[in-house]
Amino acid sequence: MNSALSKYMTLAVPRYTSYPTAPQFDASIDGEAYGAWLARLDPAEPISLYLHVPFCDELCWYCGCNMKLAARYGPVAEYLDSLIGEIDLVAARLSGRLRVSHLHWGGGTPTSLKPDDLARAMLALRSRFDFTDEAEIAIESDPRTLTAEMIERIGALGFNRASFGVQEFDPKVQRAINRIQPPELVATCVEGLRAVGVADINFDLIYGLPHQSVETITATVARCAEMAPDRLALFGYAHVPWMAKKQRLIDEAALPGAEARLAQARAAAEKLQAAGYLAIGLDHFAKPEDPLAIAAREGRLRRNFQGYTTDQAETLLGFGATAIGRTPEGYVQNIAETGAWARAIAEGRPPIGRGRAFAGDDKLRGAVIEQLMCVGAVDTAALGALHEAPPDWCARELESLAPMTAEGLLSIEAGRVEVTEAGQPLVRVVAAAFDRYHARAQKRHSVAV
Ligand code: SF4
């Protein structure tokens, strides 16, 4: 391995799905402040919606999500009632009827809802918002519990994209992470969804899992390619048991080391590209005709809480416990505890737990970091001028990157930063140089590769 690379790859850095990142959110933004932000949204601008369902039928040990096991359906049904209450409450604070260009149901497992309840929530959304003709309407699903009835309903409700957590097909790895799902099961779900008109399918894969190897991940990629998903995301397993308590069930002795992780990531990426997928950003792959690949070619790739996206909306309204939203004025995050979240809604308050108003040069730094994360290069001088910053606004940051330049991991010329091929695995480390708040939050993040 490149020795310069190995020096940086175990640094803890954010994934930069927002800037400032979530650890910088605090109680300074509450439901009242968010209500004022909502009232100031421009009805002419399309928005995105995210709905969070924190329930799952089984517990995957690698999981870092906010979820609970749904032993009975009662709490799930109550949650859904509150979610519809939140939709009404937020919509009532808007100055007009807004148009939606992207809708994403995430979790947890949104398909753990009963089909009638999913339909009820979609009706509530359609009664409060207009959807653009080309709107992407997406849902995350678990192949282990997806029923034929739910597949039918997903098609009937107009969903056009579904995603599955595939992770790894090797049976030993699946046992070690408590997620048993043979490839045949995933293939049946994919075929079923395509048959009801869900044209686009996403898969998530993970490397760095216990007992995983280059052989198992490349075999998984080969099996996935037979099912021809339109997009795949390839994530490194982030072992943070001090934050994600479920991960204490993972056998740490079976986890691959940093070098093995890098070999797995590279082998999977090569296999995906050999199968005809284009590499997008840091960790996504898409068929050349997929909108994500087209957006990347045309310089329109964006990054948000769902990772890389074609979504150009500046506003994302989040619904559900822990859901994160964004407006032109800042970020908000809903209360995490479902009981407190539901009580706030019952009392008629937007259930905001914390947030962050944009301040100082947050938007400029966010734009620099997003560009680096999307294309591995950024013109800091041009972006600085666009945001009316002084010409030397990031001189110190550029200077701090000088050692990486000397090591061949990036180049800097007249304020333009470009990560080299050797430096690609370290894009997050380069982005962190522009993060004003990074040093304070360093211990909370996963390793760079
Ligand atoms: S990985 Fe997905 S399905 Fe598994 S427990 Fe976490 S949220 Fe639920």
CATH fold group of the largest domain = pyruvate-formate lyase- activating enzyme
Shape by Cα distribution: globular
Q: CATH superfamily name of the largest domain? A: tm_1862 like domain
Count of distinct structural domains = 2
- Top CATH class of the largest domain: Alpha Beta
**Main β-sheet description:** 9 strands, mixed
- How far apart are the termini? 13 Å
Provide the list of bound ligands, each named once: iron/sulfur cluster
| Unreliable spans | none
Helix content: 25-40%
Task: Report the portion of residues in β strands.
Answer: 15-25%
CATH architecture group name of the largest domain: Alpha-Beta Horseshoe
Biggest sheet: strand arrangement? 9-10-8-7-6-5-4-1-13
Rg value: 21 Å
Overall pLDDT level: 94
**Helix/strand/pairing class, anyone?**
alpha/beta
* Count of helix runs: 17
Question: How many runs of DSSP E, i.e. beta strands?
Answer: 19
